[in-house]
Amino acid sequence: MPCFVNWFNLNGDYEVIGIHYLTESGFLTVSVLITNTNSVGTYPDSLIKWALKKNNSNTMINIETYDGYLNDINGSHVKEEEYGFEVLDDAKISDSVIQEGNVGSETGMISLGFKVGTAISSRKVDCINYMIEMLVQSNFGRKKQLIIAVIPDGEELLKN
To answer: What's one GO MF term for it (predicted)?
Structure first.
C-alpha cells in the first residue's frame, strides 16, 4: 500500500538511487534499502529481481552510507541474491515495522564519535487519523562536536 513520503538530508555526501522518483511522486511503494558505499550497486539489481518476482513495482530506493570505520568495506561481503533477497523476504514476514538498532547497514555507523544504529519515531495525528513516522540513519560528526543543552559535552568527554 503506498504511503506519503518525503526526505531530508541534513549534511550528507551520499547517493540515493530512486530519490528523484520519490521526490516527484511523493509516494513510497517499495522497500527502502540502505547499504554501504561499495555495495550500492549490488542492491538495485536484487531489489528489481525480487519485486518483479513478487509482481510488484520495479522502482527502488537504495541509500548509500559509509561504514568503513567499523566494517570491512572493501571485503565485498554483500552479495546480490544471497543477501538482498534474504533481507527483503525477512522484512516482508517480520511483525515489526522496521528493525532498529545495530542491524544491517547500521552495524558500521558512527555519529559524534559514538556507535549508533537505525532509529524510528512515530506520532499519531488523531484529528485526521494519520500516523507520521520518521526513520533516522545517522552517520556524522566527531565527538568534540557533541553539544547537549548548549553545553559542549564532546569537549569534556575528550578531556576524560
So the answer is: aminopeptidase activity
